[in-house]
Amino acid sequence: MTPVILTKDEANFFNPLYLSILQNKIIIYDKNNFIQNILKKTEKLLKEWGAKRESVGSSEVWIVRKRKPLEVTRLG
User: Residue 27 — left, alpha, or beta (φ > 0 → left; ψ -120 to 50 → alpha)?
Assistant: First the structure.
C-alpha cells in the first residue's frame, strides 16, 4: 500500500488513480464520506464517457470513448 496525499481541492478533480481505487477499494477511514462521494461521481463520469475496462494481454486497461484528451474534469 502506498499513501497518496491530496488536498480536498486536488481530490475534487478527476485522477486516473480513482480507476484503480474503484476496482480494488478498501476504504479504512472516510470522514463525511468524502472519498465515497468522489468515487460515486467517478463512476457516473465513466458511464457518461462510455468507459469500459478491457483485458489487453495480462493487463486490464480502461477504454474511454467520449472524453477529449487532457480535458480537466472537476468532480466536486
Answer: beta
**Alpha-helix runs per DSSP H in 1-76:** 8-11, 17-24, 34-48
Decide if 65 contacts 51 (C-beta within 8 A): yes
Global pTM? Answer: 0.75
Report the share of the chain in percent with pLDDT over 90: 21
CB-hemisphere CA count at 13 Å for 10? 6
Long-range contacts of 51-59 (CB under 8 A, 24+ apart): 53/23
Within 13 Å of residue 53, how many CA atoms lie on the same side as its CB? 8
Distance CA 70, CA 59 (A): 23
